[in-house]
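Second opinion, please. Pick holes in both lines of this record:
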Amino acid sequence: MKEKLQELVINKPIEQSPHYLLSQELEFRFLKSNLTFAMAFIGGIVTLRTALGIDKPITEEFTYSLVAAVLSALCAFHAKHELISDLRNGRTPSKIKRLFRRNLGPALLAISIGFAFRYFESSLH
């Protein structure tokens, strides 16, 4: 049991295979796309709220949506930085780090989209 837990958290030396390096490049591009989508979403909901001229004051849904989108962008940016750092230092990240890198940003963006949908749906009725 202890060995399995250590396997989840301990970094390993980097693999020099072309397949691993290609996977890191693809992961970097995925994170870059996630960062771009989060930033575009932030600009989009602020612009949409202004353009629709919604008289309703800013509610918790809108605030939560903005906060989740900003956190998604920060997670993606941090993950990109960590990926580059791992490649420079010659290490393969632990399974837990890889899990958070790949899933946390998109999950926060999905939450943000859900809150924005609830805000705009309730504001237009």
